[in-house]
């Protein structure tokens, strides 16, 4: 049975992500909530959740001894499939520009910056259900189609290379809703709050062979 490491670094959506992953796995995968570097380095798949500010999340992740190094070994050296959720996706960036400049994991080049609505009637934060635009890339994202997903955020990840954008969303202007590069993927929305469509995405992640 494959082991899925759900990274525990104090993120607020950890338990809801755990519950959704267990439901999506339906007993076929072992979901391990952990910050143990040895478990993370040996995991078959890794999921990084996240809510709140980029700075707070990156700081919390960095404060777990050996955790980033173990994630890097599993994902970058061993090619294990990785999924970042919300701020967990944003941490893939080179830097976050919230409360100053904070260095990210830099697994996909780009910046996380505040969403700027082109329509004064459209309010930020982007909160609620929205459909994706141009979903492509891995099947777990491409197969979402026109099913709405649940968003709640004020900042978005803008990759340097638009080929790394796997889906867009429109909220007073378009910005990335999902990214993918090799075995690394991330979604700005919350699959754990997106009902059957979100569970289906997580199930596809558990079967993803990048």
Automatic annotation (TrEMBL):
GO annotation terms (biological process): L-histidine biosynthetic process
EC number: 4.3.2.10, 3.5.1.2
Molecular function in Gene Ontology: glutaminase activity; imidazoleglycerol-phosphate synthase activity; lyase activity
Active site, UniProt feature: 86 (nucleophile), 190, 192
Keyword Amino-acid biosynthesis assigned: yes
Membrane-crossing segments per the record: none
Known catalytic reactions: 5-[(5-phospho-1-deoxy-D-ribulos-1-ylimino)methylamino]-1-(5-phospho-beta-D-ribosyl)imidazole-4-carboxamide + L-glutamine = D-erythro-1-(imidazol-4-yl)glycerol 3-phosphate + 5-amino-1-(5-phospho-beta-D-ribosyl)imidazole-4-carboxamide + L-glutamate + H(+); L-glutamine + H2O = L-glutamate + NH4(+)
Record keywords, A-Z: Amino-acid biosynthesis, Cytoplasm, Glutamine amidotransferase, Glycosyltransferase, Histidine biosynthesis, Hydrolase, Lyase, Transferase
Domain Glutamine amidotransferase: 6-205
Places the protein is found: Cytoplasm
Subunit structure: Heterodimer of HisH and HisF.
PANTHER family: IMIDAZOLE GLYCEROL PHOSPHATE SYNTHASE SUBUNIT HISH (PTHR42701:SF1)
Function summary: IGPS catalyzes the conversion of PRFAR and glutamine to IGP, AICAR and glutamate. The HisH subunit catalyzes the hydrolysis of glutamine to glutamate and ammonia as part of the synthesis of IGP and AICAR. The resulting ammonia molecule is channeled to the active site of HisF.
Name the record gives this protein: Imidazole glycerol phosphate synthase subunit HisH
Provenance organism: Phenylobacterium glaciei
